[in-house]
Nuclear transport factor 2 (Humicola insolens), 250 residues
Amino acid sequence: MNNNAQEIATQFVQHYYTTFDTNRSQLAGLYRDTSALTFETSQVAGVASIVEKLTSLPFERLQHRTSSVEAQPVAGGSAILILVTGQLLVDQESNPLSFAQAFTLAQDASGQWYVANDIFKLVYA
Amino acid sequence: MNNNAQEIATQFVQHYYTTFDTNRSQLAGLYRDTSALTFETSQVAGVASIVEKLTSLPFERLQHRTSSVEAQPVAGGSAILILVTGQLLVDQESNPLSFAQAFTLAQDASGQWYVANDIFKLVYA
């Protein structure tokens, strides 16, 4: 199960940041109405509010570079915990920012994994 | 529920790092046999293996300084997701290391919160 969780997490993370960095509004498909997002200190819940928050972030171009992706099954495998660390390149800035992001993924009735919990924080040295 | 999760998380995190920095073997009381720990790239499970891992880390003195503690209820409130960011002072080193740590807390039959999942990563700028 650990290997399976890691595999699902790795695929999810790649898809998530590719979508984030190319077309943020498409992230809607990865959340559900029970999902929660903490972005820095802002908390929002539900697909519409989450997508509004993510698409209104005040930068034009973003590039996430992941340094590590660690995953564990939660509650016997019904969910997955992921901790990502990495760097964020914003607009024309040449100095990347470090970030950490924790997700829990859950499965909907059709078996599709979605983001149940999402906490994003910049990490300052 | 968000406020309650945040309150439980804040108290837990304070207790966890105080115990970690003063007497690591006492962390045993915060895990259960179903708990999982990822420390950097090592994965261990169960109280005995987790405590063995934590007490055998090759440093004498540690000080965790938390910069942020963000929490969300998981799965309707049966569990709590926590993302901590902070800095770690090791032994005589004067330059702190940045870290991120994700926990899920669950409640045992007696209602006590324990660490179900724990992922610790150093964050490099």
Q: What stands out?
A: Helices of chain A lie at 2-22, 47-55. Chain A touches chain B through 30 residues (CB under 8 Å). Chain A is about 25% helix and 50% strand.
